[in-house]
Amino acid sequence: MDNLSDTELRALFASVKTIAVVGLSANPVRPSYFVARYLQLRGYRIIPVNPGLTGQTLFGETVYGALADIPDEVDMADIFRKSEAVPDLVDEALARWPDLSVIWMQLGVQHAAAADLARARGVTVVQNRCPKIEYQRLYEELRMGGFNTGRVSSKLT
Questions:
Q1: Model pTM above 0.85
Q2: Is residue 152 over pLDDT 70?
Q3: Domain at 6-141, CATH homologous superfamily
Q4: β-sheet bridge partners, residue 79
Q5: Where are the domains of the chain?
């Protein structure tokens, strides 16, 4: 786990506006979906990246097959892929956005060499952490299991 302080994480969340989510699923029970949805509800623009869904729409945005295909600038690439995929994704992100601010690797995802490469380019790297959990922790929104549905019910939906 990277050792960013809470102050550094708060600054990161305050500076980021647009997030490319690599591996975003259209299935609402998948972590990539509900993390992206949560971040969108907090005001971030989410740009989905999933080659299997290219051209579809998720969260009001076109789904792209690769980071290189995204026509807009992004501040953060959030990676929901296996660690082995990280080096190519980091290379692609750095080539596409020379001024990229953040590369975030989800829980269980890390790659030391790719992280070092990104840091050498001035990019903040977060590994093996979830932005939803960190945001909720920092802004006192974290509930049991990491979820805050805003309703209390014993009924299964």
A1: yes
A2: no
A3: NAD(P)-binding Rossmann-like Domain (3.40.50.720)
A4: 22, 105
A5: 6-141
